[in-house]
Amino acid sequence: MTASLALSRRLRPILTAAVLAAGWALAPAPASARGPEGIADVAEKVIDAVVNISTSQTVEAKGGGESRGANPQVPPGSPFEEFFDDFFKNRRGGPGGRGGDNSPRRTNSLGSGFIVDDSGVVVTNNHVIADADEINVILNDGTKIKADLVGVDKKTDLAVLKFKPPRQLTVVKFGDSDKLRLGDWVVAIGNPFSLGGTVTAGIVSAKNRDISSGPYDSYIQTDAAINRGNSGGPLFNLDGEVIGVNTLIISPSGGSIGIGFAVPSKTVAGVVDQLRQFGELRRGWLGVRIQGVTDEIAESLNIKPARGALVAGIDDKGPAKPAGIEPGDVVVKFDGHDIKEPKDLSRIVADTAVGKEVDVIVIRKGQEQTLKVKLGRLEDTEKVQQAAIKKDEPAEKPVTQKALGLDLAALSKDLRTRYKIKDSVKGVVVTGVDQASDAAEKRLSAGDVIVEVAQEAVTSGADIKKRVDQLKKDGKKSVLLLVSNADGELRFVALSLQ
């Protein structure tokens, strides 16, 4: 039989016909090619715990046929922008709509969710119920029940609802998303395109996926078909445990192309517990500003391999300051968890209980130190700090030194006034940048203040040139600068010495 594998494509149909004529049966495709046999068992076990979420809200028409102006606003390019545009166009501004009617209108949307407690507790996405005046849960048998909002967490896009059960409910439990492996089979159940309970299956395509949609991104990526209306629905393992909440898809067409994302159950379970207990999230807070450790920064700090979260600034009122954490420290372990990149630290700190005392291992000047920190509580504000726009003025530049592609001058009253630099900021001010230099590529600009060079304070351009010349003699490939903006916010920048 093995010799037949070498036959040309032209002979294979002839061989197949001969086999059939002889009465031989061709072997069916193995079950593994169609997926594991357990999918039907999982679906039968859990489908009654999956619900449809129906919401409605009243929106004000803007008049003059501009009905689209009343749409909920989402950021341009958001994965939900196309969904909202299509939804409102079809229901209010599309053909046959009442585009000229200026009266308030009721709009509706649909999503998915799942029951985690027989008292009627449902988990879904925040974007499914955002701004809704009325929320209804629709059970798998079609029973529709009004639900109340328990709490939401915008940062993870999760929400918890509560409704009064009409009878005994089927509930599902959370599994351990950390145990998932790439290639594991998963099952998604939800309400795609308002079709009701729909089962799809696929595998885990990736873990810990960061798509820059929020501060705590760590999605499970799957190729199980997830479409509009699946949002808020559960992603199951083959034991029938929820290991994720389907939240996002990437698709140029709006339909599934096999790239879907689910919030892992480890994150969901913690958020749900807090929302049920407090109605809000109480996240841990360390009180530091952090940035990534690039290869250049790692070389400057003698850290091999490049890893961790570099502390660029300390909040004067935060827990890190009394614990002894300093700018320039690199956090490599927090409460027993390895920190490979800044997002790791952000997620772990947020998930740690407020008031807990933890060990934090930092690398300071090439040596590891263990510090104890008692976490505070992160205040959940929506305020965004915007950097002041600085303009390079063509006025006379009192340059005292050139180094690293920078024009440098000692801080004076005139320079503080020109660049609006606070009195608390100390160091050497940048008055000009060579646009062909590494400094320009790293976005240094006039008005920035160099506070430290290679973790040593500087007060003049001569100090900087002296430190740079010495590092070159020592064979260093880069130099680490601690840079402040006019308001005193710090960041580290590594510049090439080549």
Automatic annotation (TrEMBL):
<protein>
    <recommendedName>
        <fullName>Probable periplasmic serine endoprotease DegP-like</fullName>
        <ecNumber>3.4.21.107</ecNumber>
    </recommendedName>
</protein>
<feature type="domain" description="PDZ">
    <location>
        <begin position="386"/>
        <end position="486"/>
    </location>
</feature>
<feature type="domain" description="PDZ">
    <location>
        <begin position="275"/>
        <end position="366"/>
    </location>
</feature>
<keyword id="KW-0720">Serine protease</keyword>
<dbReference type="InterPro" id="IPR001478">
    <property type="entry name" value="PDZ"/>
</dbReference>
<feature type="region of interest" description="Disordered">
    <location>
        <begin position="91"/>
        <end position="111"/>
    </location>
</feature>
<dbReference type="InterPro" id="IPR011782">
    <property type="entry name" value="Pept_S1C_Do"/>
</dbReference>
<dbReference type="InterPro" id="IPR036034">
    <property type="entry name" value="PDZ_sf"/>
</dbReference>
<keyword id="KW-0677">Repeat</keyword>
<keyword id="KW-0378">Hydrolase</keyword>
<feature type="region of interest" description="Disordered">
    <location>
        <begin position="58"/>
        <end position="77"/>
    </location>
</feature>
<keyword id="KW-0732">Signal</keyword>
<dbReference type="Pfam" id="PF13365">
    <property type="entry name" value="Trypsin_2"/>
</dbReference>
<keyword id="KW-0346">Stress response</keyword>
<feature type="signal peptide">
    <location>
        <begin position="1"/>
        <end position="33"/>
    </location>
</feature>
<dbReference type="Pfam" id="PF13180">
    <property type="entry name" value="PDZ_2"/>
</dbReference>
<keyword id="KW-0574">Periplasm</keyword>
<dbReference type="InterPro" id="IPR009003">
    <property type="entry name" value="Peptidase_S1_PA"/>
</dbReference>
<dbReference type="InterPro" id="IPR001940">
    <property type="entry name" value="Peptidase_S1C"/>
</dbReference>
<keyword id="KW-0645">Protease</keyword>
<comment type="similarity">
    <text>Belongs to the peptidase S1C family.</text>
</comment>
